[in-house]
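Model: Ready when you are.
Researcher: Fold this.
Model:
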Amino acid sequence: MLKERLKEARKRMGISREKLAELAGVSTSTITFLENGRNDGSKFLVEIARVLGVTAEWLMYGIDSNTPTTAEVRPMPNTTPTTQTNEGSFVPVISWVTAGNFHSVETLPADELIKWVPCPVAHSENTFALRVVGVSMENPNGKPSFEDGDIIYVDPDRVPENKSLVVVTLEGSSSATFKQLVIETDGMYIQPLNPNWHEKVIKINGNAVINGVVIGKWTDV
C-alpha cells in the first residue's frame, strides 16, 4: 500500500516527516495523511518520490525498474573503509558546484538537492552522489572507467590513498572535479583516466581540497 511504501522509503533515508515535507515543498500534514492512510494519493506525489529517490509509480503501485541493487553498483578499490555502513540508505545527488562547498547532508539546502538515490555500498552518513559530466574519466584500457551520465557515490569521510578516485576542488574554481589521486614522495597529483584528455597531470599542494573519495558508481543500461 502507498502508506507503507512511503513510510518505508522515508525511514530508509533516515529523515522525519517534517524533513521530508520541507525537502518536497509540502506541508507536514500532507505526509502525515499519506502515511496514516487518510489520503490514498496526492498531487505532490511526484515531488515526494523525487526527494525519496523512488518513482511515483513505485509509491502508488510498488512498480519500479530503475532502483540500483547491490550487484549493479560497483565498489571502488584503493579506499580505506569507513566504520559506518549505512548500506541501502539514500544519499543526495547534488551538482558539481554544490560539491565544492558540501559539508553535510543535514545542512544541505533543499534547493541544492537534485534527487535522492539508494547507495548499497558501505558509506558514511555524509556521502553524496554526482552525475559524471564529460569523458575525462573514460578509460579505454579497462576498469575503472566512468562515462558521461554515470552516477558516482562520494564519501567525504573516507581516507584517500594512492590511486584513489577523488572529487577535488581546485583553488579559484567554482566547482569540483573528478580525477584519480596519485601520491608520490614529492607530493600529490591528480590525473584523468582518459589518456587522450588534454589536461594530463596537475600537482596539488595546498591549492586544492579533496571533497571525498569515490566508493562506487551506478550505470544505466
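Researcher: Now this one.
Model:
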Amino acid sequence: MNQNILDSIRRAPGKPGVYLWKNERGGILYVGKAENLRKRLSNYLKPKDPKTMRLVENAVRVEWILTKTDVEALILEDALVKQNQPRYNVRLRDDKRYPYIKLTVNERLPEIQVVRRVELDGSRYFGPYTDPGSVRKFVKLVRTLFGIRKCGGKAYSIKRPCIDYSMGICTAPCQVMGEREYQKRVEQAARFLAGDYEKVKRNILLEIKDLSEKLEYEKARDLKKTFEAMESLSVAQDVSSAKLKDMDILGYAFHLGKANITQMKVRDHKVVAVLHHPLKGEYLGDGGQSVKAFIKQHYTTEDITPKLIYTSAEAEDRKLLEKTLSEIRGGKVEIRMAVRGQYLKLAEMAVENSLHQIIAETLEKKKVSRLELLQKGLGLTKMPRRIEGYDISNIGEKATVGGMVVFTNGVADKSQYRKFRIRQPGQNDCRNMAEMVGRRFNHPEWERPDLILLDGGKPQLNACLKKIPSGIPVIALAKKEEEIYLPDKKTPIILKKDNPALHLLMEVRDESHRYSKSYHEKKRRGG
C-alpha cells in the first residue's frame, strides 16, 4: 500500500459517507459506504481475503464523499456504482427495465398505461412483467373488462366519445359514464390487477343484483359480460398458505463462478412473477454481500418495494437497508432470512430456480461457443445454427436407406429428422447419397440449413454438389482421421482433437450414422 493511501486513511473523518478506490488513470475500482469512514477504511490496512488484496494493490489513491446520514451514503453509493460500473463492486449484469402497468389513480379520470419506469407520482403500479407482449394483451383485456380509458389528456377536452367507446373498450367517462361510476370501475380494475380476482367478481355480482333491482337492465347486462369474461380467465398459481400476502422471495445461487438472484413476487397469496437477475463483480461468492448489493440497486430505483422481503442468505447491513427502503416506500419494510416453514420452502424453490438459471445460461453459452468456433474454423459467413447431417446404410443391395439428422443451435432436434428409402438399386454409396440430398431439396417448405455435413470423404462431397442449392455450405467428414473436406479445397482441414467445433461435427456425423443404421435394421426386420 503506497504512502498516499496510508495518509488518506489517517485523514479520513469519523463520519458517514462514500469512499472510492481509484487506479492510476483516475478510474474507479470500487465504491463503498460507511457509517464511520475512518473506521471502515482502517480495515483495508491489513486485508485478509485475496480479492481485497488485489483491490488495494491496483489502487493508487482513495477518496471520499461525506453525507449527512448513513441512509444518504447508501443511496449515493448505489448511484455511483450504477454510473461507473466499478470492477470490484457486485452489480446487476443486465440493467434492463421490465414493463409495469400504470393506473393513474391520482387523476380525476384515471387511465391505464404500460411503462418501464416507476415514479413517485401518486399513480398505482403493477408488475414487473417479463413479457412485454403479454402485458399489452393484459392491458387490452383490463380495458375490455372494465372500460378504462388510455387517451391521455384528451379526455378533458374531447367533445364526443372516440372510436374506443364504439368498440366497447372504453366507457367514455369524458362524455357518457359519470365520474363516480367510472371511479368504481377503476377500483375494480386496480383490485383485478393486484390479483384479487375473487373479490372483484363478488363485487360485480352484488352490483349486477343492485342494478337489476333498480331496473337498470342494460348496465346489468354489460356487467354480466364482464363477469363471464373473468370467469373464463385462468389465474396465477396459488401459494400453499393464506398467510402469504405481499412479499418478495430472493434466492441467491453461486455456481461455476457465476451468481444469480431469482426474485419470486408474491401478491395476494399468489406467485405473480419469477424474475432472474444475473450478477457480476468480484465478490459474487459472498451471498450476504450479493443479496445486499441486489436489494440496494433493485429496490431503490427499479422496483416497487413490498412490505416484506425474504432472503435465502442473510443480507449484510440488513437494518440499514430496511431503514433506507422504509424511507423510500413511506412505510415499514422488513428484510428477513427464511429459516423455517413455508418461507424456507419458497426460498429453497427460488434458490433452485436461480441455480437452474446459471446452469442453463452456461450451457447456452457453450453451445454458442462451439458454433462460433465452427464458423471460424470452416470460414463460414454466418453461424451454423441449423446443421443437417446425412448418412447411407445398407448391407449388400437390399433395403438401402438414408437418414437426415438436424442439430439446432448445437443440439439434436429430433422432430426435424427425416428418413429416406433409396430408390435406385445397387450399393453405390456416392450415388445413393446424392439421391437422398437431391430429394431433401425437393422440399422448399423445410427450413434452409446453414451447413450440410456428409458422412464420407471427397467422393461423397463431389457427388452431392450439384444437388445442393448455391449459397449453402457443405462439408464431408471422414471417419479415419476426422478429415474435413470442403468443395473449394484440395486438401482437407484437420482440427485439433480437443477442438469443441470438431466434437460438434463428430456428434452430428455419429448421430446420422446411428439414425440411418436403426432405420436400416427396422427395414430388414420387415418394419
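Researcher: Key takeaway?
Model: The chain has 15 helices and 19 strands.
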